[in-house]
């Protein structure tokens, strides 16, 4: 294991080469302090199935529950840490989801997580980033084999590695007596995570066709930016017409609402097409209609209109005044550079789906190109919401929403037993864990406590 040539693999797959993979260990060093390597001497894994309150549909499919995966790493120094993941087969590779039963697809991803743990056992890593560079090629190749898909999406492998990557960061912190998330960020990636917002917007997610009264209710509750799925079922022409009608109904219902969080006082719209559009012409028809009804100025983000299959430049769309964001298609830092070169001017980062290690790299690439980022969700558990939040609170602010971070959180909308899952948080009563009027308070205590991500959860420890 771990004998694959990473340079050749990265050239072949486009996964990208980080400083660690290139042998530039200094890229991942902490400032002013030499970090101890971690030798992993014991591993273990487990998972829990958490049902959703109702089927959650997107990308032409649906899920009824989420496997919460837990990875355990123990070092030769006796430190033992557990890291959580949340599997989303449908999001990470819809083709795998379509080819298997829901639980069958989950089992495939879980097998990849287990493969990663076994590959890491007995190995010594200078940092979690070095570990990711070592594991990702093998896990991806293994995933190609067991799914029988040579073009398996990179996010499928990254999603499988979230739990072990999180455990590695916690183990790395324990081995080096690091007690704050800021101290854990390698020097090379600190600029991209250098903000300190005292507020993070809580962005709910709404599936295509959500009743307008539900959207109005959320606006009445103080949510001022919502992630709304477009890309209706049907042919491309049918989709555009349905999306136009959906936009019209939304704008008529909440377009006049006011908020103190934007420069113009209007609610910003955040539309996610999940790669459903096939052409620029169709997107431009949608935007022309938005302009016709007076909604164009309120579209703050148009996420993933085409998906990675479309490598066309998107500057024509950006010229309409809309931020076009890459999400699924920005698997890695290398992919992020590609999307930015195509004109994408926003990036959705997902520490809960693409690993914290890869997220640091992606955020740094975006920072260097002056492209703003925000945190997207994966319908994750309350613990992973906090892993996302420590990133969201440190990302440079969106120009349209100054002074705050942005984070999608939809688990509270979708899990049947969200309150029980919240009880697993070691600091579930902390103010930063609950949004009020659509905002999380990320004050000094939040930063001092690193959002609680370094605290141990008795529930998850008991699983081992």
Using brief descriptors, characterize the structure shown.
alpha/beta; Enolase-like, domain 1; TIM Barrel; four-stranded antiparallel sheet; 40% helix; globular
Protein model, in words:
By secondary structure, the chain is of the alpha/beta class. It folds into 2 domains: 173 residues, Enolase-like, N-terminal domain (Enolase-like, domain 1, 2-Layer Sandwich), CATH 3.30.390.10; 276 residues, TIM Barrel (Alpha-Beta Barrel), CATH 3.20.20. 40% of the residues lie in helices and 18% in strands. It is built from 19 helices and 14 strands. The strands form 3 sheets. Strands 6-7-8-9-10-11-12 form a 7-stranded parallel beta sheet. A 4-stranded antiparallel beta sheet has the order 3-2-1-4. Helix 12 links the parallel strand 10 and strand 11. Helix 5 packs antiparallel against helix 6. It is globular, with a radius of gyration of 21 Å. The N terminus is likely disordered.
Secondary-structure content class: alpha/beta
> For the residues shown, what is the average pLDDT?
92
* Shape assignment: globular
Largest sheet: 7 strands, parallel
Instruction: Give the uncertain stretches in residue-range form.
Output: 1-27
Topology summary:
Elements: H1 6-13, E1 38-58, E2 61-75, E3 80-86, H2 89-92, H3 94-99, H4 102-120, E4 124-125, H5 128-147, H6 154-175, H7 181-184, E5 199-203, E6 205-206, H8 212-220, E7 226-229, H9 236-254, E8 269-272, H10 280-292, E9 299-303, H11 315-318, E10 323-326, H12 333-341, E11 346-349, H13 351-354, H14 356-368, E12 373-375, H15 382-392, E13 405-408, H16 411-414, H17 418-422, E14 439-441, H18 444-448, H19 458-462
Parallel strand pairs: 5-13, 6-7, 7-8, 8-9, 9-10, 10-11, 11-12
Antiparallel strand pairs: 1-2, 1-4, 2-3, 5-14
Helix pairs in contact: 4-5, 4-6, 5-6, 8-9, 9-10, 12-14
């Amino acid at each position: 294991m771990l004998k694959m040539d990473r340079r050749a693999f990265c050239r072949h797959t486009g996964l990208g080469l980080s400083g660690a993979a290139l042998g530039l260990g200094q890229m991942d060093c902490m400032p002013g302090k030499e970090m101890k390597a971690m030798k992993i001497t014991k591993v273990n894994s487990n998972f829990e199935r958490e049902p959703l309150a109702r089927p959650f549909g997107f990308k032409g499919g649906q899920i009824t529950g989420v496997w919460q995966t837990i990875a355990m790493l123990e070092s030769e120094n006796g430190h033992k840490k557990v890291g959580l993941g949340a599997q989303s087969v449908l999001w990470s590779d819809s083709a795998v989801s379509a080819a298997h039963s829901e639980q069958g697809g989950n089992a495939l991803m879980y097998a990849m997580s287990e493969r990663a743990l076994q590959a890491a056992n007995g190995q010594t890593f200078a940092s979690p980033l070095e570990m990711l560079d070592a594991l990702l090629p093998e896990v991806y190749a293994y995933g190609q084999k067991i799914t029988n898909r040579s073009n398996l999406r990179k996010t499928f492998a990254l999603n499988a590695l979230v739990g072990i990557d999180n455990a590695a960061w916690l183990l790395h912190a324990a081995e080096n007596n690091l007690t704050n998330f800021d101290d854990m960020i390698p020097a090379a990636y600190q600029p991209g995570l250098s903000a300190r917002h005292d507020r993070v917007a809580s962005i709910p997610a709404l599936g295509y066709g959500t009743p307008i009264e539900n959207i109005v209710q959320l606006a009445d509750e103080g949510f001022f930016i919502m992630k709304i799925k477009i890309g209706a079922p049907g042919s491309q022409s049918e989709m555009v017409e349905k999306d136009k009608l959906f936009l019209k109904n939304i704008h008529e219902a909440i377009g006049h609402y006011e908020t103190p969080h934007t420069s113009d006082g209007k609610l910003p719209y955040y539309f996610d097409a999940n790669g459903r559009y096939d052409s620029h012409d169709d997107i431009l028809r949608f935007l022309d209609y938005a302009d016709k009804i007076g909604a164009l100025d309120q579209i703050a983000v148009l996420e993933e209109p085409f998906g990675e299959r479309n490598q066309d430049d998107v500057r024509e769309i950006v010229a309409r005044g809309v931020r076009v964001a890459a999400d699924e298609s920005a698997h890695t830092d290398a992919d992020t550079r590609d999307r930015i070169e195509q004109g994408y001017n926003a990036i959705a980062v997902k520490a809960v789906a693409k690993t914290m290690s890869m997220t640091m790299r992606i955020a740094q690439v975006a920072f260097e190109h002056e492209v703003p980022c925000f945190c997207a969700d994966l319908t994750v558990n309350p613990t992973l919401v906090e892993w996302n939040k420590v990133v969201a609170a440190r990302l440079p602010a969106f120009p349209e929403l100054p002074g705050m971070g942005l984070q999608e959180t939809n688990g509270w909308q979708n899990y049947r037993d969200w309150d029980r899952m919240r009880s697993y948080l070691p600091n579930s009563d902390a103010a930063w864990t609950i949004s009020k009027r659509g905002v999380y308070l990320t004050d000094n205590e939040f930063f001092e406590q690193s959002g609680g991500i370094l605290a141990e959860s008795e529930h998850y420890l008991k699983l081992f």
